[in-house]
Amino acid sequence: GGAMRILSNSLQIENCSFISNGVFGYLAKGGALSITTKYFTMNFTYFESNWANASDPLQSGCGGDVSIASENSVIINSCTFNLSIGGSLYFEGTMDYTVYLNNTRFDSTRVGSISMQSGGSIYAESSTFYSNSGLYAISVYETRSVTFVSCRFEENQSNNTGAILFVNIQHTNFTSCNFIGNRGENA
Predict the structure, then answer these.
(1) pLDDT tens per residue, range 25-38
(2) Helix/strand/coil (H, E, C) string of the chain?
């Protein structure tokens, strides 16, 4: 992580700001934070203009704001991710964890707002995804479940397929969500 690399059994971050932090190099992950933990909670935290720029094209977009490897739960409540490059949140590994997003905003991120591969589940409620772009605005591959409740997806854009991409998800649920002005090329 550009600002911090944290290896801890349990981690809580509250009322913090991470602005203009970055990381570069072969396996660059987490422009502001690179975290390995069993339990992670973050409340009322603000991220702006953080970036991750890996020299390996297969690794680019590995958490412009935060890269997380967790074994159990990740709780993100009332946070804002703004203007990141390399994606806002990158969840790595094949752990069976659950990510809870509540009242969180992803605004104008480049290379997508959320990327999760071969992991557990995402449950998002009352969260906003606005004007995110890249290969996909949100991408989730081979996970157990994805649930969005009362979320807003507005003006997100993909230069590959639809703005939101889910592949090999066992259970997908959208309830009371709004999709407004999202765009995808070659969808």
Answers:
(1) 767 789 999 999 98
(2) CCCEEEEEEEEEEECCEEECCEEEECCCCCCCEEEEEEEEEEECCEEECCEEEECCCCCCCCCCCEEEEEEEEEEEECCEEECCECCCEEECCCCCCEEEEECCEEECCECCCEEEECCCEEEEECCEEECCEECCCEEEECCCEEEEECCEEECCEECCCCCEEEECCCEEEEECCEEECCEECCC
